[in-house]
Amino acid sequence: YHYMKGLNDAALNKAWYYTRESDYRQALNLFLEVKERYKQDGDQLGLLRASTGVSGAHFYLGNYDIVLENNAETIKIAKEAGNINRHNVSLISSAQVYLEIEESKKALEFSLMAMEMGKTSGIFPEECIVLKTVADAYFQLKEYAKALPYARESLAKSKKAKDVAMIFDCLSYLGKNYM
To answer: Are 8 and 53 spatial neighbours (Cβ–Cβ below 8 Å)?
Structure first.
């Protein structure tokens, strides 16, 4: 069992490597393969981690319907397993898809669910991204006054976390939309 888990975890890490290298097709193939192996082995955490990767790869390939379908499955498994982290990540992933396809109300609904879950559970893995996604959704809805505080809070938390990429994203967003 430990040998197979090690092989599966190594394959998952390799898939994440392909994602970082922007080779999303290769990453997707490996995520799907390892997702099935985790499922066969009954490794729920591995399954959830691989499912997150499947959604990410499909997102970058523009397969938004598949992302939403996969996220719904991941949310169900995460709820059953009590894995708040993966549940939250899948909610925000869905919110970002809804932003891409300009379904702003759904984007806001999912991002607010992710924010509420993070605040009530104390498990908030992607807080800066969630806050920025709430801002983006309000902005798409042309509710600019509601968007601005979330963007500013995302920037402040990004600075505190020293997340340079997110700081840049927030500053670009604020400059583009409010300057």
So the answer is: no
Write the DSSP assignment of 157-169 as a string of letters: HHHHHT-HHHHHH
pLDDT at site 130:
92
Give residues with Cβ within 8 angstroms of 96, minimum separation 6: 59, 107, 133
| Weakly modelled stretches of the chain, pLDDT under 70 | 1, 123-125
C-alpha 34/C-alpha 43 separation (Å) is 11
Sign of CA dihedral 24, 27, 29, 31: negative
Q: Which helix (H) or strand (E) holds 19?
A: helix 2-20
- Per the CB < 8 A criterion, the answer to whether 147 and 156 are in contact is no
Burial of 105 (0-12, 13-18, 19+ CB in 10 A): exposed
**Would you state the pLDDT for residue 59?**
97
**pLDDT per position as a tens digit, 35-63:** 999 999 999 999 999 999 999 999 999 99
